[in-house]
Amino acid sequence: MATTPKVLTYEEWLKLPEVEGIEEVVNGEIRIMPPNKTLHADIVENLADLLKAAIDRKTTQVRISNFGLVVREDPLTTRVPDIAVFLRANVIERDGYVHSAPKLVVEVLSPAKTRAEREEKLRDYASLGVPEVWVVSPEARSVEVLLWKQGTLATTSLLREGQLKPIKSPNAAIEIADIWPN
User: Fold this and answer.
1) DSSP letters of 116-175?
2) What are residue 136's phi and psi, to 5 degrees?
3) Which residues share a beta bridge with 77?
4) 182 residues of the chain, pLDDT tens digit each
5) How far apart are CA 106 and CA 50, in angstroms?
6) Distance CA 98, CA 101 (A)
7) Are 62 and 52 in contact (CB under 8 A)?
8) Is residue 8 within 8 Å of 29, Cβ to Cβ?
9) Most buried by CB count within 10 Å: which residue of 6, 19, 70, 178?
10) Does the model's pTM come out above 0.70?
11) 84: exposed, middle or buried (Cβ count in 10 Å: 0-12, 13-18, 19+)
12) In whole angstroms, what is the distance from residue 14 CA to residue 140 CA?
């Protein structure tokens, strides 16, 4: 006999103890993921360091995957982006979690992530109105740049070399070659 999983509410989720590893909630169902592998972590750290060095830290905040981003409370959906860049003045924090759209999200692909999971995440970021997402592929050594247009995130470029310039921080330039660990 098949059973339906219990759908977790926002209020129930707030009462849960913190877990080790990475936890997201999608449409009320908890998804626990293993910690990132070393290559993934190195790329996240490199890119976060590059972004922090390139932006104005007084007005802009770079967060790495150690915080929860509430996409919606009903049905509860929370995400843990690898990197999220926020305008400090626009950050809404409630109950210890962020409830506002970053100006840039970076997702580093893992071999375990399916295309459906990737698309689901992108739809969630689009629903928040995230204006830009970078999808980093360690395997292809490329960065897919997606921009928010008419309620969806659409690919505008796929880069293997050159510079990344966040649309909301055009003076910040990241050399793609510097993303990869030596």
Assistant:
1) HHHHHHHHHHHHHT--EEEEEETTTTEEEEEEEETTEEEEEEEESSSEE--TT-TT--EE
2) -95, 125
3) 72
4) 555 567 999 999 999 988 777 899 999 999 988 888 999 999 999 999 999 999 999 999 999 988 899 999 999 999 999 999 999 999 999 999 999 999 999 999 988 778 899 999 999 999 999 999 999 999 999 999 999 999 999 999 999 999 999 999 888 999 999 999 97
5) 13
6) 8
7) yes
8) yes
9) 70
10) yes
11) buried
12) 38
How many CA atoms, within 13 angstroms, populate the side-chain half-sphere of residue 126?
16
Which residue in 81, 80, 130 sits closest to 103, CA to CA? 130
Nearest to 84 by CA among 109, 105, 61: 105
